[in-house]
Amino acid sequence: MKNIENAKRLPTIIHVDLDAFYASVEERDNPRLKGKPVIVGGRSNKGVVTTANYEARKYGVHSAMPMFMARRKCPKGIYVPGRMERYQEVSREIFRILHSFSDVLEKVSIDEAYLDITHLEAEPHKLVFELKETVYKETGLTLSVGIAYNKFLAKLASDWHKPAGVKEITPEMVPEILLPLPIRKVHGLGPKSCGLLNNLGLYTIGDLLELPEEFLMELLGKSGREVYHRIRGIDPRPVNTHRERKSLGIERTFPKGTRNRQVLEEYLQNFSQELSRDLKEKKLHARTITLKIKDENFKVQSRGKTLFQHINGADEIFEMVHGIFQELALEVPLRLIGITASNLLSEDLQQLSFFDL
Ligand code: TTP
Ligand code: MG
């Protein structure tokens, strides 16, 4: 019995993160940008950098940097405004590919996911190689991957050899890898907690290992326990395929305000279709549909309707949002229109509850 217990394999979890995601999509869509420093962000000098490709990072440009500073550091850079819808579209394509490798997948953000591949036959490095090849062939984008036996270490590893790198962290490597790392690398320690710990003279994970669990809990509250275990390479969080989503939405800003009902309704038609596709892909149904508008005076309004049953069909969504839209006076031209689906129910959970009845 003991032997069987010992032979039980550790999980194999991979963390996938696209390289300079928005900037890479811009490069791919516009070959003229290839090899040049590309910066995506607000057009005005008051805006900030959303992301910069690795060429631009050589000049010291990075996410959240004010645009004027980026322009100063990298005057030859190519500055492009973001195209959120396009990034969403490419992201969907990538997630379709990721799903085909393992359906035990947790989406963390538009360009980041955990996949549990423990149950698959394939050797992890071989699978990761194929996954990278497939994403590159089908989308032209590169990604970095971390392989480990838990989520914390997999995420740490994906950042190791960016861009386009692969890094595995095995149990034997843990002390050597973790001890010298700065404490900000610990998932769960934000800038505020890091500041507190630095003030106590604690800078590396090695320093943190000296602290008793109670001390960390007193300092950090509930997350103190998680941090205590994480710095020892322990993280029991499973890859959560039903990560709860609160809402799903799509919106569009216009370069010029419009009151043209026909044009606006056309947007709503398209959005309803896209939202429906998104909900179906995620096996979700929504009970509340909300219309969001912003007019030329920057006045934002959201109006929602809630049904008794859950829906995810394009026609049903459009019918609801159209009803709300028709009640609007449209006195001031609109600069933005969008739809959000909320009060979501996962199909898997729904099935579960049927069985429970
Ligand atoms: P990240 O994965 O953090 O960054 P990245 O993909 O651009 O670069 P890296 O190679 O280091 O992974 O974020 C993914 C996308 O999310 C990024 O392309 C743009 C967007 N983003 C923001 O909108 N605001 C931000 O502050 C950051 C960091 C990212
Ligand atoms: Mg990324």
Order of helices and strands: HEHEEHHEHEEHEHEHHHHHEHEEHEH
> What is the average of the pLDDT values?
91
**Structure classification:** alpha+beta
Roughly how many Å is the radius of gyration? Answer: 23 Å
Low-confidence parts: 1-6, 350-357
Largest sheet: 5 strands, mixed
Distance between the ends: 38 Å
CATH topology of the domain at 247-347: Dna Ligase, domain 1
**CATH class designation of the domain at 247-347:** Alpha Beta
CATH H-level superfamily title of the domain at 247-347: DNA polymerase, Y-family, little finger domain
**CATH architecture field of the domain at 247-347:** 2-Layer Sandwich
Cofactors and ligands present? thymidine-5'-triphosphate, magnesium ion
User: What percentage of amino acids are in beta strands?
Assistant: 15-25%
Strands in their spatial order, largest beta sheet: 5-6-1-7-8
Shape: globular
Number of extended strands: 12
Q: Work out the helicity level.
A: 40-55%
Q: How many DSSP H or I helices? A: 15
Structural description of this entry:
- With 357 residues, the protein is α+β, with helices and mostly antiparallel strands.
- Among the domains are: 21-83, 3-Layer(aba) Sandwich (MutS, DNA mismatch repair protein, domain I); 175-232, DNA polymerase, domain 1; 247-347, DNA polymerase, Y-family, little finger domain (Dna Ligase, domain 1), CATH 3.30.1490.100.
- It has 15 helices and 12 strands.
- The strands form 3 sheets. The protein has a 5-stranded mixed beta sheet. A 4-stranded antiparallel beta sheet has the order 9-12-10-11. Strands 3-2-4 form a 3-stranded mixed beta sheet.
- The structure holds thymidine-5'-triphosphate and magnesium ion.
- Magnesium ion binds next to β1.
